[in-house]
UniProtKB/TrEMBL annotation:
The protein's Enzyme Commission number: 3.4.11.2
Organism: Micromonospora vulcania
Name this protein carries in UniProt: Aminopeptidase N
Domain Peptidase M1 membrane alanine aminopeptidase per the UniProt entry, residue ranges: 283-473
GO molecular function, one term: aminopeptidase activity
Keyword Protease: yes
Highest taxon of source: Bacteria
């Protein structure tokens, strides 16, 4: 997740003390859960079967997202006019209703809606309290295609946190008239109609038309450029909070990661002095592959934006311009953290926001392990500082598995969950722990998981019942006692 300065420094302290013209190609077999809906096994919707999900109502933020629809695919045609400050879009959305209903609803900011159609026929749709409600009868498991044309000036939404680095979420206009977005736990609805919840992952085709001399950047694999229109495609599922969009005067730095993975950094002229830092992305990806298995996507990269934060947006990390200003070490640790999320959070996604620790604990622990390798921090130093900070955070925020909806992203979900993983590592040893980590990702690719499924996986994979250890570290109001390795 995005970093505030205190979280970035904490890791160091803890270690030292509209769709495209052609439909997307069908996804590879086995890339997603099976599509059991009759409308997804054949016919025009079969190409998007990999976008099938089981949406839930979020216990922390029930006003965002819905379990009444499962979006299979978003086709977004977007155009940005910096002089008019106007975003023009056409969203073509393939939807599987999960139950019979007189209407369908998606999260959406109140842009001016130019057209609304369902299966090619005009429909009535209006945005009320940031929900686009389209009056059309639907039947469970019978897919529909909703097309919404819209335009307007982007606006943001409040971030539900008291963090010191808090700023609005969603599509933001920068000082040069460009665009960027960060949107965890929600905010994608500020630029397209969306079921804005991680339990409803979908496939994406995004086309961004930028002014002449500008570039449009989005999450997904680049699939070509027509004039000033840049196209991206995601043929594996993406959670809405992991989508990104940026428009500006960008240059590119091309590199090759492990196994030939293309790595692209999008930067502005003012970022050019940091090119030596940007060139280290392949090193980070190689280290992560060695520890956690193959990189789970077709391409990787960074896009620099006018922010102090950073975000693990899928295939294209959104990196605030303040990050490299903090120096090589902090830049390396934070950037590796965001890339680690591509395994833990992007490839395997939480089901609801109660389990944010499942993303952040893994990413921070990977960051700590990298710093141990790169900066030769001893195990004793890591244990001592980890326990000290864990105790402080449990006292301030409580245990990591009981997040406060008004304190999204509090530091306990990072540090206390990473401490739990350190205990698992200590119990299992290197070989078994990294086998567990690699298996968790590779055997659950492109799915949503929960605390219960994680615990069950750990117990099954290791042949040992770790339920009490996991529960204690996730639920205890005070720092649990240290435990040693399992008997050999």
């Amino acid at each position: 997740m995005r970093h505030r300065t205190s979280i970035a420094m904490l890791a160091t302290i803890a270690l030292l003390g509209g769709c495209t013209a052609d439909p997307p190609a069908p996804p590879a077999a086995g890339a997603s859960p099976s599509a059991s809906s009759p409308g997804l096994t054949s016919g025009p919707y079969a190409a998007w079967a990999a976008g099938r999900s089981t949406p839930v109502v979020d216990p922390l933020y029930p006003e965002r997202g819905t379990d009444a629809v499962d979006v299979l695919h978003y086709g977004l045609e977007l155009s940005w006019s910096p002089s008019k400050r106007t975003l023009t879009g056409t969203a073509t959305v393939q939807i599987r209703p999960t139950r019979d209903a007189p209407s369908v609803s998606l999260d959406f900011m109140p842009y001016a809606n130019d057209t609304v159609t369902v299966d090619g026929k005009a429909a009535t749709g209006a945005v009320v309290r940031e929900k686009l409600v389209v009056e059309t009868p639907v039947r469970a498991d019978v897919p529909i295609t909703l097309v919404v044309g819209y335009h307007g000036k982007p606006s943001t939404t409040a971030w539900p946190t008291k963090r010191g680095d808090a700023h609005p979420l969603g599509l933001t206009i920068d000082s040069d008239g460009g665009l960027w977005t960060m949107q965890e736990p929600f905010g994608a609805f500020t630029w397209y109609p969306v079921n804005d919840h991680p339990s409803d992952e979908a496939l994406y085709d995004i086309a961004v038309t930028a002014p002449k001399g500008w570039s449009g950047i989005a999450s997904g694999t680049p699939v070509g450029q027509d004039g000033t229109t840049f196209r991206y495609r995601s043929t594996v599922p993406v959670a809405s909070y992991l989508t990104t969009l940026a428009v500006g005067r960008y240059r590119t730095l091309k590199a090759t990661g492990p196994r030939g993975i293309p790595v692209t950094t999008w930067y502005r002229d003012k970022d050019a002095r940091f090119l030596p830092m940007f060139k280290r992305s392949p090193t980070f990806l190689t280290w992560l592959e060695e520890h956690f298995g193959p990189y789970p996507f077709e391409s990787a990269g960074l896009v620099m934006v006018e922010s102090a934060s950073a975000m693990e947006t899928q295939q294209m990390v959104t990196l605030g311009e303040a990050q490299p200003l903090r120096g090589d070490r902090t830049f390396d640790l934070n950037t590796l953290h965001e890339y680690a999320h591509h395994w833990f959070g992007d490839a395997v996604t939480l089901t609801d926001w109660r389990d944010m620790w499942l993303n952040e604990g893994w990413a921070l622990y990977a960051q700590q392990l990298y710093a141990r390798d790169a900066y030769k921090v001893t195990k004793a130093e890591l244990v001592r500082s980890s326990r000290q900070r864990d105790a402080e955070l449990r006292k301030e925020y409580g245990p990591p598995a009981k997040p406060d909806p008004a304190e999204f992203g509090s530091t306990n979900v990072y540090v206390c969950a990473a401490a739990m993983l350190r205990q698992l590592h200590q119990a299992l040893g290197d070989d078994r722990f990294f086998a567990l980590a690699r298996g968790w990702v590779q055997e659950n690719l492109h799915t949503q998981q929960t605390r219960a499924s994680f615990t069950a996986y750990v117990n099954q994979k290791t042949g040992h019942d770790f339920t009490a250890l996991i529960d204690t570290w996730l639920d205890s109001p005070t720092t649990p006692a240290e435990t040693g390795p399992l008997p050999q």
